[in-house]
Amino acid sequence: MPLQGSMSVERMCQFAQVSRAGFYRSLQERTPVEEDMDLQSSIQQIVMEHRRRYGYRRVSAELRRRGMLAITSAWPES
Question: Kindly report the CA angle at 41 between 37 and 47, in degrees rounded to 5?
């Protein structure tokens, strides 16, 4: 196991009272990409403009009208 300074990962996890799996999982978590944040912001804006009456199909259509890519495969099917 690689050392972090003079402490092993196992020792640091023990000290912080976290599991090793939790430690490695936290390394894999990514921060939101700016594109993702822009898309989320646009979706929220559309929803609020239409007083929360738009479902995912209308939001997707509005995103396409605005020239933004809307990936509908990640959205649940109804």
Answer: 145
